[in-house]
Amino acid sequence: MTVNDDSFTNWMHREEIAESMIPIIGKLHREQDVNVLLHSRSLVNKSVVSILKTHRFARQIAGEELIVTETMPFLRALTTLDLGPSQIDIGMLAATYRSDGRGLSVEEFTAEAVAGATGENKIERRASRDVVLYGFGRIGRLLARLLIEKAGSGNGLRLRAIVVRKGSGQDIVKRASLLRRDSIHGQFQGTITVDEANSKIIANGNEIKVIYSDDPREVDYTAYGIKDAILIDNTGRWRDREGLSKHLQPGIAKVVLTAPGKGDVPNIVHGVNHDTVKPDERILSCASCTTNAIVPPLKAMADEYGVLRGHVETVHSYTNDQNLLDNYHGSDRRGRSAALNMVITETGAASAVAKALPDLDAPITGSSIRVPVPDVSIAILSLRLERETTREEVLDYLRNVSLASPLKRQIDFISAPDAVSSDFIGSRHASIVDAGATKVDGDNAILYLWYDNEFGYSCQVIRVVQHVSGVEYPTYPAPAV
Hints:
Elements: H1 3-32, E1 34-38, E2 41-42, H2 48-62, H3 68-78, E3 86-89, H4 90-98, H5 106-113, E4 129-134, H6 138-149, E5 157-164, H7 171-180, E6 181-182, E7 186-187, E8 192-195, E9 200-203, E10 206-212, E11 229-233, H8 241-244, E12 252-257, E13 283-285, H9 289-305, E14 307-317, E15 343-345, H10 349-356, E16 364-371, E17 377-389, H11 391-404, E18 411-414, E19 431-434, E20 439-451, H12 455-469, E21 475-476
Parallel strand pairs: 1-3, 3-21, 4-5, 4-11, 5-10, 11-12, 12-13, 14-16, 18-19
Antiparallel strand pairs: 1-2, 6-7, 8-9, 9-10, 14-17, 15-16, 17-20, 19-20
Helix pairs in contact: 1-2, 1-3, 3-4, 3-5, 6-12, 9-10
């Protein structure tokens, strides 16, 4: 047998193991509401090749590739436990077991590591929480995809309706088609049918009512069997408490805005300040995509090194707010063709930092340049630190933050020397640290932070909605504080 034959045989063996993982992961998800992760990446509904690629990607953050033969014993161990709703990271289980040194078996170690999700400690499965999408644009459709994806266990969040203005001719068919196919994010994973007679879109068995309205005050959601729902406003039309309060109609319990909130509306960045949301707060904002990209790494750097001041420059993909070709626009520069120009514009991300990190006593300034790409942006975060450090120390620290801290769902880490923006389409993290571009000189640090300003931000919005809905389940092994 040749070396090449050995490599191919090894690959086929890994394929076989990954294939056997799929029914175990699916059963844990459906029957026990357990989401199996690998270094914060969900393995639910993933293909054989996707599972193998996720294991392979571990080398970018942990320094070495994970092999399915290492993680499979931990997955099998989970099937022997009386688990409740939770997220369990088998990548972290394998990594921590490797360095444990107590001589425990895989089964003993796993039972100890996830003890908070078993037996008398486990959380009871809750009834699903109704969700309404107000608006069905770029963010709205991605939120719909995520909500449908997460409905697989029958618990958690349940998308009940979308509210839009009535369009001309086959409105619901066209909206369903936009949900089914996306030029950036690809095909919808599943089946979509349209019930025009009853104004419904059925996606993977989820019946979604399409409600037509020009005024949020005109909708009685209880008439559609919707109650105690979270309404996500992704239109950006209203941003203050007075405007967003129009959504608080019968059937709606809370309103979440997918844009920076104004006035006293709390701006929430999941992973940083979501625990500050008061139980009786009915209106809140998820801030902006850029705020979500810079605040988690800014907090991480401030916690470890202290920050005296900073500036963020965002190189941002163009959005629907810009003109495709030169035409009138209320903004000075956004009227120029988005597909042909780099456009200097403003960003509210820097000022929003104060709302998300009120204890950060450091001035943060910011500006933005829109560029001719349709998705994925990069934030260049330049910081003056309270103490001197080295590039190696900063990278080791941020790598560990991405692996084993409470911010590991927000901050990702990549060391690939040839990474470009399209590589991060579909990233579920709020921010990805580019190790190769990072610069540190004494007390000055410059971080290059990639982010999918559509999908990564939508994931952050869903996390906030899960939190305020009481369906955000704990992760095991518990991240280091």
